[in-house]
Amino acid sequence: MPQQELEFRGINRKHLEMYFAELGGKQITNLYPITYQTDDWIGEILSEEELTITSTFKVNRVYIRFTANDGEALKEIIKKFRVKTTRIGG
Predict the structure, then answer these.
(1) Is residue 90 one of the residues assigned to a domain?
(2) What pLDDT score was predicted for residue 88?
(3) How many helices (H) and strands (E) does the chain have?
């Protein structure tokens, strides 16, 4: 089964959990790795940590992993997830 790990910075872990649920994932675990699952894919929040950019600028960093039944399903779920995590500045 194909899988891919992604890193997100500056997005709250709870928001990422909400996005998994909005995409149809059912929460399976509450502890790391926090796992969401459907018939076609599994999404896992592997860890969250604070990243220090400068002495006063810190952001969170969250690692997630997607596993899917096939390569096409993997590409599709990552595409949908990235739409939810896109941030447009102004």
Answers:
(1) no
(2) 80
(3) 2, 5
Residue pair 59/10 in contact by the 8 Å Cβ criterion: yes
Structure tokens at 58: 């810190």
Q: Tell me the whole-structure pTM to 2 decimals.
A: 0.90
What CATH code is carried by the domain that includes residue 46? 3.30.1370.80
Residue whose tokens read 């997100």: 8
Helix, coil or strand: residue 82: helix
The tokens for 12 are 């709250």
Structural domain count, the chain: 1
Q: Given this model, what pLDDT does residue 90 score? A: 60
Q: How many CB atoms lie within 10 A of CB 63?
A: 16
Q: Find all residues with CB under 8 Å of 85, minimum gap 6, and list them.
A: 8, 11, 16, 19
